[in-house]
Amino acid sequence: MKELHTGSLFWPTTLNSPAEYPSITSNKKVKVAIVGGGMSGTICGYILAKSGIEAAMLERESVAGGSTSANTGLLQFSNDIMLWELADQIGEYDAVRFYRGCLDAVRQLGEVAAQLPVDVGFIPRSSLYYATSEQELPMLRKEYEMLLKHGFDVSFLEADDISRQFPFRKPGAIVAQGDAEVNPFQFVQGVSAAAVEAGLQIYEHTDIVKHEQSAEGRQLLRTADGWEIEAEHVIFAIGYEPEELRGQLVKANINRSFAAVTVVQDDAKLRANWPGQCLIWETARPFLYLRTTVDGRIVVGGLDEMTEAPIESEKLRRKRTDKLLEKITALFPMLDQPLEFEWSATFGESRDNLPFIGADPKMPGVYYCLGYGGNGTVYSMMAAYMLRDMINGEAHPLSSIVRLDRPSLLKV
Length: 412
Hints:
Elements: E1 5-8, E2 28-35, H1 39-50, E3 55-58, E4 74-75, H2 83-90, H3 92-115, E5 123-130, H4 137-149, E6 154-158, H5 159-165, E7 172-181, H6 184-197, E8 201-203, E9 208-213, E10 219-223, E11 228-236, E12 252-262, H7 267-273, E13 279-282, E14 289-292, E15 298-305, H8 314-331, E16 339-350, E17 356-359, E18 366-370, H9 376-391, H10 399-402
Parallel strand pairs: 2-3, 2-11, 3-8, 5-13, 11-18
Antiparallel strand pairs: 1-16, 4-7, 5-7, 6-7, 9-10, 10-11, 12-15, 12-16, 13-14, 14-15, 17-18
Helix pairs in contact: 1-6, 1-9, 2-3, 3-9
């Protein structure tokens, strides 16, 4: 079984009694089977159920227990690839449509959160995207100009502007409106409960070990315990490329990253030195990213490494996460509280910096929601509506950009 994270996770400590769901104990027939009970599967299940589509979500372990628990909860419309770079790759028209789709998805996540009966820590935030070095300032200005040209709510801070507002100085920064933060664990738990209310069936501890198609084109899924789920459609929403498909459909890199959470900071210092508790990230690759939590902690992530397995050794992990703490104190010397939680996690990146969402080009009725990249939650929201439309036989305006056999993959 693939280990998606190691270390001490913060988000599961914020919910005392997460819901538990039964495992499958008989054969089932449904219209849509969703494999995976993390962020992607849960949002897909919620949207399908709210749209009146019969669906069952099948989770190998427990809901939100995989990569969702290691998610840092930054929700941004900007992507790992800048808008102008994406325009060079797929054309300006499609690049702008994709960025607008991401902005819509952040808004839609807020709408979902607002409908839940519990608080999941969804808070609209601005983002500060700073140039790490003088050499990267021209490309950041270029990004600002393109975002502004296409109507995104952005402003530009010069070095003096930054140092007046923050306790650090950087060559320049874009301030973007329309982003948000969320507690990903609480969000998935809340969405799962709401999805069940809307008619979604959820089964935990249900490991799918076999998938085949019947002569009639039905999807047949078999569990490790020998039960069979028959469906018209199946969505693989497992956060990474299914092992049996690796290299056949998509070109992806599976890497590992690191994140940490401090103890609660001094509230007065935090408010005085971190305007609006904006999300913060940088132009360097791999990039540093920071946010705060509702109880006044700092979440920091970065130091991505091009190797797949998360680090088991606490000593080796702490070497990386201590560097993250150093980066916090370099920006905010007065916010000097130590780390309380630290972890290493596996994540996927596509070679063209776009997610994989859509139909299997060779297997009718099979769909994928693989939200590779730094915006996995945003991609999951986008995917939920896209896959719903596909299952209903309707076109979606962004499907050609993120489909599994898209032309942009041939260029990388």
